[in-house]
């Protein structure tokens, strides 16, 4: 039985992947903070209860046989489903990004990710202790 | 979308703001560039435009600097009869560059640049945390 098949690790890995995807979307939002007509995107809140069924399911990907092919599953927010944000304000040029909000989200994302990696490390330490090895 | 994509997207943001800064510098440097002879147009202010485009190699929307548009607003004119570019009534046409607007644009570019830089820093910290798992 691999490490990834243990519920704790698969749940944490999934959550870390969620944060990784979110970081990409937030980077998009910040980079396009002044692009006319650009509306920001974000992921729906991560919910362990919702994701439980998906922990063991393998993602389906399309094969890229040419360099110009789009990878369908990994792009556009991946398995988590990127959605348009409900913007608080939209500038006259049609841009819906508030830089302050995005910075807050980036920081929150970092802190939650750190929490997930810490839990991951702790779980590994617990396993080591169980095996009788002093960490 | 992995962390490297995030870094590359943020890098395009930095790149776009750098290009914008260059245009602002151009405008400010030429704020007083009048024509050489009467009837000759002075420097015309330029405006950078941004476009969001999908980059398949990154798997996300990056930002690109689009066309450098010309500001078609009126030139200002000053009464300087001794100037080589003065017209019959003694007026010289000066560029439609407003230093105040340029200074504001510059601030905005700086802030957006910092925001993108912040994304790079945070993404690097997240990458670092991932590597920390290896150390156990």
Structural descriptors:
heterodimer, A: 135 residues, mainly alpha, two-stranded antiparallel sheet, 3 helices, 45% helix, 4% strand, elongated, B: 136 residues, alpha+beta, two-stranded antiparallel ribbon, 2 helices, 4 strands, 47% helix, 21% strand
Please tell me about this protein's structure:
The complex is a heterodimer of chains A (about 140) and B (about 140). With about 140 residues, chain A is mostly helical. Chain A is built from 3 helices and 2 strands; from the N terminus they run αβαβα. Chain A has a two-stranded antiparallel ribbon with strand order 1-2. The model of chain A has no long low-confidence stretch (mean pLDDT about 80). Chain B is α+β, with helices and mostly antiparallel strands and about 140 residues long. Chain B has one domain. Chain B is built from 2 helices and 4 strands, in the order αββββα. Chain B has a two-stranded antiparallel ribbon. Chain B has a two-stranded antiparallel ribbon with strand order 3-4. Chains A and B meet through α1 and α3 of A and α1, β1, β2 and α2 of B. Chain B: One of its GO terms (cellular component) is bacterial-type flagellum basal body, rod.
H-E order of chain A: HEHEH
DSSP summary: helix tally of chain B: 2
From the N-terminal CA to the C-terminal CA of chain B, the straight-line distance is: 25 Å
Specify the structural class of chain B: alpha+beta
Assign a percent range to the helix content of chain A: 40-55%
- Major β-sheet strand ordering of chain A: 1-2
Mean pLDDT of chain A: 80
Number of distinct beta strands of chain A: 2
Total number of domains of chain B: 1
**Major β-sheet of chain B, in short?**
2 strands, antiparallel
Helix count, DSSP H or I runs of 4 or more residues of chain A: 3
Helix content of chain B: 40-55%
Our estimate of the beta-strand percent of chain A is under 5%
Shape of chain A: elongated
Low-confidence stretches of chain B: none
